[in-house]
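Minutes, project check-in
Item: structure for the 208-residue chain
Input as provided by the requester:
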Amino acid sequence: MKIIAPKNFETFLFKILLNYQINNFALINFNFMKSIILIFVLSLITSCKKANNVINVANTTNIKEIPRSVTNLEIYDFSGFEKFLNKKDDTVYVINFWATWCAPCVKELPYFEMLNKAYKNEGVEVILVSLDFPHLYEKKLKPFIAKHNLDSKIIVLNDVDMNTWIPKVDAGWSGSIPATIIYKNEKKQFYERSFSYEELEKTLTPFL
């Protein structure tokens, strides 16, 4: 039997099976099938190792040194965080729930940063509440904060009892992110959606 070297592993398996096709319902040799399965498993392991190497290289590229200002994260469970939802000091609070693994969240973060810069001297405080998983704090969250030079106040909410605290944030919240609360004293509004800067600024205006 002559087999021409294939360009990929799938072609390789196909050519082998084609040469060993079943004629008249005869059974394929069991040891031969075990050999094919073994080759397939070894190929998957090799591919995974290569993929992991690529991911590791990507994650360690262009990561800046983390400033001391973000080395100590402000982390709360919900009982500790809840005070940020109920302040009554005539400040307008814009509280955004986000995570580094949430693409829509990351896309709109610059708009909250712009809002913070434009209105921080007008009685507005932007608070970015990260819902990143604890194992991502060091390798994802801190480098992200440093890379993007986030200036808004950043809080990490780490409380696994989500079914209990999500309704306390807002009874209608499904738990999906991004989500935002804007409130001033007793006036409060919850938004389970993404914003452009223009939409965010327009939403803020009634609270000023």
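Outcome recorded: Residues 32 and 189 are 66 Å apart (CA to CA).
No further action items on this chain.
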